[in-house]
Design a protein that fits this description.
Domain Aldehyde dehydrogenase: 13-481
Mean pLDDT: 96
Family: Belongs to the aldehyde dehydrogenase family.
CATH topology of the largest domain: Aldehyde Dehydrogenase, Chain A, domain 1
Low-confidence stretches: none
InterPro entries: Ald_DH/histidinol_DH (IPR016161), Ald_DH_C (IPR016163), Ald_DH_N (IPR016162), Aldehyde_DH_dom (IPR015590)
Keywords: Oxidoreductase
Pfam family, one: Aldedh
Number of helices: 15
Amino acid sequence: MAGAWRLFIGGEWTEPELGYYDVLNPATEEVVGRAPEASGAQVAAAVDAARDAFESWSRTAPEERAAVLDRTAAVLRREFAGYAELAQAESGATAATARGMQVGVAAARFRRYARGALEPLETGLPPQVNEAGPLGKAGVLGALAVRRPVGVVACVTSYNNPWANPAGKVAPALAMGNTVVVKPAPQDPLSVYRMAEALAEAGAPPGVVNVVTGARPEVGEAVVAADGVDMVSFTGSTAVGQRIAEVCGRGMKRQLMELGGKGAALVFDDADLRSAVAGIGTTFSFYSGQICTAPTRVLAQRGIYRRLVEGLARYAEQLTVGDPRERGTVVGPVISAAHRDRIESYVALAAEEGARLVTGGERPARERGFYVAPTLFADCTHAMRVVREEIFGPVVAVVPFDDEEEGVALANDSDYGLLDYVWSGDVARAFRVAGRLRAGGVGVNTIGRHMEAPFGGFKRSGVGRDVGSYALHAYSELQSIVWPG
């Protein structure tokens, strides 16, 4: 699997001017492949290629764009096994996650936006009757609101899902007639080059899709700041998102930001505890907690507090931590040694702050790889940093509360507002509480996602919404057309 990749610029595979860097398997620390390090000039060339391709691509028939996306999905299905093997190697995902949630979701997103390219662009507005005046004679005006492509979109993607996250940006952007420059996360960029191969095979014209990579932050900064970029779509940390937003503000660039999360899970006394434990427990296993939607901040009503903590401890202790290639492994590694060390620093900090370590907290006994044991803290207060800050690892902190008012207040006392959760046997109360939560989404007695529902965050969790038709809106501008009736 190891090999050196080249940049993809204007439909050509291009040697990087600044050499290569190693992409490591986080489970074994072996080299998966070598990723190219783009120069500033090559970033500019990628943006120019996208700019040059925009005029023709934006004018193609929707049916043609749909066909390219549908053929891309077919290539992903044909090469499914190899793509999943690469995703697992460079991200450390388990086989089930790499197949189902990474490559499988990517193929589904290209299929979805093949249909999306055919969705109506025009919305008719009611006719307006105008009296005679300074602007003309009396008459009736008709109007349309029409969605138009934004232009060149910089897609800056996250490391936790090297297939589904880029596909969720590239597919709707192309469906709307935009062209893209993709800057993948430096930890696992090789899958995105495979995606570019699939798009080229499917007939995406030169320059419509460009991929530049680099371990240096300067590469992403150059992409975001380029004059030829009209919009930035970013998934990642709030801190990086804030810096990107400052650059976008100076250039009046459109933004779609899916940033950090510290999901509150409110569990009431009448909740189905088995359901709550199973849902919250996914923080320990799914992507090894490296997901912004995880219910990591558990607010438990005192009547079930002890039983919920005990249930979560049993759940965590039954999970097998190990090489994701091995059958039976549930919890794989985190993405890098640096990230493992960051998570461990939060575990140490929680103990210093007075949280009670219930289970986990130690580094698993593995000769190689970047592993963190599923870790549960109880008897936390809401002022603790382990409760307030995004850790992005398999760490759950539990805080008790007395009544509904306190639970809602604690849930909303956060810089973040991406996805919150409510578990209660009283569905009316659950929906009432959901309506009071300052979050872009709320799961009621579930952690499940509806893949047509708008996705995005309140507060520092982001700007804008995507998924389903909302992504098509995000990657378009509205133009109004008015005419005399």
